[in-house]
Design goal:
GMP Synthetase, Chain A, domain 3, Rossmann fold, 3 domains, alpha/beta, binds adenosine-5'-monophosphate-propyl ester, 5-stranded parallel beta sheet
């Protein structure tokens, strides 16, 4: 039997270093990827000359392409929908919706204009005012998109939650943000009712009953359908300004519970410009972003980026399935596709033949984000789909793409690419004081001040400020820049786990674990995984009277899965008599990880005897 730890060690090192050790055969295959290929449609890329764009384009130039509100001010929903609905694009398809069961619906920009006006008026009627936090908690149906846009129109701060979240994940976010209204569906209502008692500030729950099943409404609940029937369709825009809060996304850090990352209406300038130049969106495109709005990608690039460019987009309600995904591309003739490495690796696993069964010839340009995209995946997509995936890098905090591979550029497979025009990226030394020379590894940092930069963490301004030094935003990632200005991801500088592109804070999982009656202490780390990049492993010491067993492992896994969500439960559990701690009682995750992977243990002087 092979030594598990040795395998993991190799895998961990592979993940860290594979990017600049591209095997020869991969390089040779890559040579066949044509440089600056304008794609099957012969469209000229929106960013045709990188060096020139960096010299000539900046945020001011992009901001000039945004309309602004007729009477002054700025609103992201107006830029996404109203300006197209009120102009030449009113009958153009904004949304092609594909239901999980194969249903199709089409919404023009004018349809979305009318529906979002109605809901915005209804929200106003429920007392929503500028700056109020309003959340959605539902599957990817058209109403989710209508709701998110309507919240922005009413001047609220939109907060999308994954529909698969469990009660703890929902309560933590609604309570922390002091949410006023929640828009949800009968599928989620049981969980909502479970957490309601702890949410005194939540005045109204709007229930979208798409299937029209007979239902009784509980306390604080109102019917979406009734609200919509009664609401006026007249335009409903709150006169918001560029610096008013528009979006909140919760993200995980090393310590504490998830934090609310706050974005303002000005962020639309970043969404618009990067969707145009990185995703290369043209008016004739049919675009599909596979991400859910619960993840920042599904908001910046599943709502605001494409629609601010007046582009038609597909939303697929269902989850991953290789055949089903290819079917969506074939059915809607998707031209530009934005997905994530875990999904791409799953497509690779499904095999080239799975792709060959469908007509994917509409695709002209494909991009990836969220985790390191291994060079093999780039080469595979060239072979199986006839196009290379273009990797790009950004974060919830950055709001839009910062570093990217562009259609008119050589890709170096494994590299995240080069900074967007208007973005200054660098590598700083350990103290985050000095910029390092090309080739040296350090902290990836960005010059503060781009339009979609987050403006604070909700109620945690001190932590926000700690993320900046000398005008640089410190991203929390470690990276290298090469001589040509391409950036290469090395790893996280903190304990945050990236599983299938989703960040999970170990503290959140540990907090859930110790609520299980058998668990005395828990330490959580990420371990390498060939598909999901990392999966969660928990080390647990048990309370007196409990014995380790496979049954207990299963029970604990389910316990966390139900409380938080499917991505945040530990795939592996190991029972230990006690966990390594510092003298002040802090569990040493770093040591757990080093031991797990067979890596050097480093400084253990603070270890409790
Ligand atoms: O560690 C980096 C990784 O995902 C983090 C950001 O995650 P989140 O805030 O959830 O934002 C997701 C929207 C992109 C980063 O700090 N990450 C993101 N893109 C890449 C990446 N790691 C390597 N390569 C990438 N292209």
């Amino acid at each position: 039997m092979q030594d598990n730890k040795a395998l993991r060690r190799r895998s961990a090192q592979g993940l860290e270093h594979s990017k600049d050790r591209v095997p020869n055969e991969v390089k040779m295959q890559y040579e066949t990827i044509r440089k600056g290929d304008p794609g099957r449609w012969g469209l000229r890329p929106n960013l045709a000359d990188y060096a020139r764009a960096r010299q000539e384009l900046g945020w001011e130039a992009f901001a000039a392409e945004i309309s602004g509100l007729p009477g002054g001010g700025l609103n992201i929903a107006y830029e996404a929908i109203d300006r197209h609905a009120l102009g030449q694009n009113k009958d153009k398809a904004a949304l092609y919706w594909e239901g999980a069961a194969g249903e199709s619906e089409r919404y023009s920009f004018a349809d979305l204009f009318n529906l979002t006006n109605r809901l915005a008026n209804a929200l106003r009627g429920l007392g929503v005012k500028k700056g109020d936090r309003v959340f959605t908690y539902m599957d990817r149906t058209p109403e989710l998109y209508i709701a998110l846009l309507a919240i922005a129109k009413a001047g609220g701060v939109l907060g999308p939650l994954f529909s698969a979240f469990g009660p703890d994940a929902v309560r933590d976010r609604l309570a922390d943000s002091g949410a006023k209204v929640l828009i949800t569906t009968p599928k989620q209502i049981k969980i909502v009712r479970q957490v309601l008692a702890g949410l005194p500030e939540l005045t109204t729950i709007i229930v979208v009953n798409r299937k029209g099943a007979a239902r009784e409404l509980g306390p604080r609940e109102v019917s979406y359908e009734e609200l919509m029937a009664e609401a006026a369709q007249a335009p409903a825009l709150e006169p918001t300004g560029p610096e008013d809060f528009a979006i909140v996304h919760y993200t995980s850090g090393t310590t504490g519970k998830p934090k609310g990352v706050m974005h303002v209406h000005q962020a639309i300038v970043g969404h618009y410009a990067t969707a145009k130049l990185v995703l290369d969106l043209h008016p004739e495109d049919i675009y599909w972003c596979t991400a859910d709005p619960g993840w920042v990608t599904g908001t910046s690039y599943g709502i605001f980026g494409p629609w601010s460019n007046g582009v038609s987009q597909v939303v697929f309600e269902g989850g991953f399935g290789a055949g089903r995904w290819y079917q969506v591309i074939e059915k809607y003739k998707v031209t530009v596709w934005y997905s994530a490495p875990t999904a791409i690796r799953l497509l690779m696993k499904a095999g080239d033949q799975a792709a060959k069964k469908y007509d994917l010839s509409s695709l002209r340009y494909i991009c990836s984000v969220g985790e390191p995209l291994n060079p093999e995946a780039v080469v595979w997509s060239q072979k199986a789909l006839g196009l290379p995936f273009h990797d790009n890098w950004w974060q919830t905090e950055t709001g839009c793409i910062q570093i990217a591979n562009y259609p008119a550029q050589d890709i170096k497979p494994g590299s995240m690419g080069r900074p967007f025009p208007g973005v200054t990226a660098t590598i700083l030394d350990e103290a985050c004081e000095k910029e390092l020379a090309p080739g040296q590894e350090g902290h990836l940092a960005l010059k503060a001040g781009w339009p979609s930069m987050f403006r604070t963490y909700w109620n945690r301004q001190d932590y926000y400020e700690s993320r900046f030094t000398n005008g640089w935003y410190i991203t929390g990632d470690r990276a290298r820049m090469d001589q040509d200005g391409y950036f290469w991801f090395v790893g996280r500088a903190d304990d945050v786990i990236n599983t299938a592109g989703h960040l999970v804070g170990p503290f959140e999982v540990e907090s859930a674990l110790i609520e299980h009656p058998a668990v005395a202490e828990a330490g959580v780390i990420g371990i390498p995984d060939p598909i999901a990049m990392e999966v969660i492993k928990a080390f647990i010491s048990l309370k007196d009277g409990y014995q380790p067993s496979e049954e207990l492992k299963k029970e604990i896994k389910q316990f966390v899965r139900k409380k938080l969500h499917a991505l945040a439960f530990p795939r592996e559990i190991e029972f230990l008599p006690s966990l390594p701690k510092t003298r002040s009682g802090k569990i040493m995750r770093r040591l757990l990880k080093a031991r797990e992977l067979g890596l050097p243990e480093g400084d253990t002087s603070t270890l409790e005897e």
